Structures are given as structure tokens and as C-alpha cells.
Amino acid sequence: MHVAGILNDKGGTVVTMGPRSTVKEAIALMAQKRIGAVVIVGVENAVLGMFSERDVVRVLAQKGPEALTDDLARHMTSPVFTCTPETLIDEIMQLMTSKKFRHVPVVDGGALSGLVSIGDVVKFRLAEIETEHRAMRDYIASA
Fold it and tell me: How far is Cα 24 from Cα 72, in angstroms, rounded to an integer?
């Protein structure tokens, strides 16, 4: 299965901000939307970086509350690992595991088209395992 399958189920809506938004604005938006990260985009919806809960912890530990007025461009994670709708789910799983991050922006034709989280991948894998389990039970029952 490809990333496109996950996006077909969950949709392509992504919470984004510009690089000139502040850390405080990003924290407020993440709290309001109950999400763990925002994608930082520039012209034509090009992915510039990510700002996640981990970035919040890091910047506050380093600079304290003064960092709240800083632009996201100063503290976002960049460059960002991205994928395409044609990327295999197994590849995304491997990437998330080896690089230790939980969100991968999906880029199609140079523009952001979705976001895959570790939760999305786990949900997909559980459904896949359940389908295999059901098929195995049906096969055994018919033998």
C-alpha cells in the first residue's frame, strides 16, 4: 500500500503556518487543534520546515520564555524529510523509525498535499494485520 491510501482515508488537510509566525502562535494553534506539529510553508505551499512539540521543548529549554516571540524560521526543524503519494507505507515506517520523527509531509509536484503521522501508519498496519488474521482464520476454517 502507498501513502495515497492513507491520505484517501484521512484526507489531505494539513495545518500550516508561515515562517514569520511566532513560536507562541504555533503553540496556541497546536493546542487549539490538538495536534503535535505544524508544517511551515512558503511560496506556492512549498515545505520549508516542521515545528513540533519536541521543538517547543527544545527552544524553551534553551532560551526560556523569551523564545515565544521568535519567528518559527529560527526554531523549525529543517530540512524536512518528505514523501510522495506513491511512497510505500513500509518505507515511511522505516524512515520514521530510523530518523525518530512522527510526522512526514506528503509533497506532490513540489507542493504540500498531506501529512502522514506515526498514528496514521500504526492505524494502517493494525487494519492490515486484522485483515490478514481474518483471511487466515477463514482459510483454516474452510480446510
Answer: 9
Determine contact, residues 75/51, Cβ cutoff 8 Å.
yes
Written as nine digits, the cell of 74 is: 529560527
- The residue assigned the cell 511560496 is 43
Distance of CA 105 to the CA centre of its chain: 5
Residue 35's pLDDT band (cuts 50, 70, 90): very high
The full set of domains in the chain, from first to last, is: 3-142 (3.10.580.10)
- Write down the H helix ranges in the chain: 3-10, 23-33, 53-63, 89-99, 118-142
Predicted local confidence at residue 49, as pLDDT: 96
What pLDDT does residue 129 have? 85
38-65 mean pLDDT:
94
pTM of the complete model:
0.84
